[in-house]
């Protein structure tokens, strides 16, 4: 049974709730919460229902699932507000679209005389099953974030805008060491956090690579409302 580990993880995901705070909400002692987390006792059914309601999860997930996602490559999950920004995007569909899409966007930045371009990206989901299953393709969109106040006079370039918004964020240390595992689980962790804290996904998420002290990082942003 994974109950002890799961309840501890959900408690920490819920704004670092303490054992005492959880105990007060459930009408039990702090020592009882401690015993549950150490798997030294099991709550009665009514308490399981209360816990599931509090953390927005099912009893199967709570008792038998492996909710906890832990990796030393991940930062703490945070809520961050980004000011409104404009961007131009480019989508590639191929077997390895990321590098091509990012290269095209960096070329565009050079043409627009942007010295230090801010490039973001996200998976492009609108593919057919034939493209995915038969040709093993996937899609990726890279986007150039425009400097504040920059005007684009080329009508062939479509400028899109994101309004000022809050995002759930998580940063990955050296994401390309194991990108499929690290990036997908980081997104999973972010969505778990949103579910536990009852944030609503606003159908926009992106990632940004950067370097600091010769270490590569990727920061994920998941829009909430």
Architecture overview:
The protein is of the alpha+beta class and 225 residues long. The chain folds into 3 domains: 3-64, 434 Repressor (Amino-terminal Domain) (Orthogonal Bundle); 85-162, no CATH class; 163-224, no CATH class. 37% of the residues lie in helices and 28% in strands. The chain has 8 helices and 8 strands. The protein has helices at residues 3-13, 19-26, 30-37, 45-55, 59-64, 97-111, 129-134, 179-196; strands at 78-82, 85-94, 118-124, 138-145, 160-162, 165-173, 201-212, 215-224. It has a 4-stranded antiparallel beta sheet with strand order 1-6-8-7, with helices on one face. Strands 3-4-2-5 form a 4-stranded antiparallel beta sheet, covered by helices on one side. A hairpin with a 2-residue loop joins strand 7 and strand 8. The longest helix is centred in the C-terminal third of the chain and has 18 residues, at 179-196. The model has no long low-confidence stretch (mean pLDDT 94).
Low-confidence stretches: none
Number of helices: 8
Mean pLDDT: 94
Gross morphology: elongated
Strand order of the largest sheet: 1-6-8-7
Count of distinct strands:
8
Could you tell me the strand content as a percent range?
Answer: 25-35%
Order of helices and strands: HHHHHEEHEHEEEHEE
| Helical residue percent band | 25-40%
